[in-house]
Amino acid sequence: NRRFILRRRPVGDPVPEDFELVSEPIPDVPAGGLVVRNHYCSLDPAQRGWMDDAPSYMPPIPLGEPVRATTVGEVYASDNPDFPVGSWVMNLSGIEEYSAVELGHFTAPIDIGMVDSPSKFLSAMGAVGLTAYFGMLEVAKPKAGETLCVSGAAGAVGSVVGQIGKIHGCRVIGIAGGAEKCRRLIEDYGFDVAIDYRGKSREDLVEEIAKAAPDGLDMVFENVGGDILEAEVHNLAKKARIVLCGLISEYNSVEKHGLQNLWQLIVHQASIHGFLIMDYADRFPEGGAQIAQWIAEGKVRIDEDVQEGIENTYDAFMRLFSGKNTGKLVLKIA
Ligand code: NDP
């Protein structure tokens, strides 16, 4: 059982020495629980936060334990009649080939007959679509004709956010890194405007957003923070809603940037809302059904970036921070 262990807490950018791939015997079945053979692990920016010993919505990953991850896998051994051997589950466990699972509310049976690859339970049928759905519908509350700006726009969450904006009749501006990602925003995801932030100063970004949204931004869906958020806040419309979903530009920095332009929130009577998908857990079936319907209707497209091999976990994970990932990053380990 190979397991991708957190050996020490990264300071700044994670380095390979922060982790170790160890090999251990397959665990025994816990009483009333399961052993799951993990096939796919979700690689998420949030995992970087869980590596820190800092107050958060979840305890830090203990040192010496595998990096926590949402996984999909097959029941390998079972002491629970509800989860027979050979059935499939989605689980919050770790990056490891086999997980001993004591059943909690994070373990759910899945029907992989519904999808062309079990990885879809980490992308199209997973938290990505739900984050975009509840962040948009419950917090941003889009109205036709409004302008939405989303950062991290070509990423897993961002690309769906923009597409939901289009479904609601909004003008959608996406901010992403590089010409190829900007091309995809327009051609693959139907955004109206794509802004490439790479190599641009905060002032450049303020200007480009102003040009794209002369009447200001009614909604900001923030995945990045830093200069991008500052530039957006400089371009708010009256009563703008900011969904604070992620701050990936800060996850590897020891010094956090904060937001300097708070005054602009007063000027525009804007609101900023810290968003956590877990708040909506009791409504996941509703959100999941709507996303599935939009996908079936061809209104939403969710791409995956599938990397292979538990021995490649570190390199795969770092794609999130270099921007190499094109779509929801998942790691195939079986
Ligand atoms: P993505 O697929 O968007 O991958 C991360 C992307 O972030 C990269 O591809 C890169 O795109 C961009 N990025 C990385 N570093 C920087 C940087 N320094 N400056 C600007 N852009 C950067 O990942 P997800 O869709 O999984 O996550 C997107 C965001 O949503 C994250 O902030 C995450 O924490 C947040 N999130 C929050 C949830 C919640 O409940 N609050 C739930 C799920 C996700 P590029 O090439 O464009 O730079």
Automatic annotation (TrEMBL):
<dbReference type="Pfam" id="PF16884">
    <property type="entry name" value="ADH_N_2"/>
</dbReference>
<feature type="domain" description="Enoyl reductase (ER)">
    <location>
        <begin position="12"/>
        <end position="331"/>
    </location>
</feature>
<dbReference type="InterPro" id="IPR013149">
    <property type="entry name" value="ADH-like_C"/>
</dbReference>
<dbReference type="InterPro" id="IPR036291">
    <property type="entry name" value="NAD(P)-bd_dom_sf"/>
</dbReference>
<dbReference type="Pfam" id="PF00107">
    <property type="entry name" value="ADH_zinc_N"/>
</dbReference>
<protein>
    <submittedName>
        <fullName>NADP-dependent oxidoreductase</fullName>
    </submittedName>
</protein>
<dbReference type="InterPro" id="IPR020843">
    <property type="entry name" value="ER"/>
</dbReference>
<dbReference type="InterPro" id="IPR045010">
    <property type="entry name" value="MDR_fam"/>
</dbReference>
<keyword id="KW-0560">Oxidoreductase</keyword>
<dbReference type="InterPro" id="IPR011032">
    <property type="entry name" value="GroES-like_sf"/>
</dbReference>
<dbReference type="GO" id="GO:0016628">
    <property type="term" value="F:oxidoreductase activity, acting on the CH-CH group of donors, NAD or NADP as acceptor"/>
</dbReference>
<dbReference type="InterPro" id="IPR041694">
    <property type="entry name" value="ADH_N_2"/>
</dbReference>
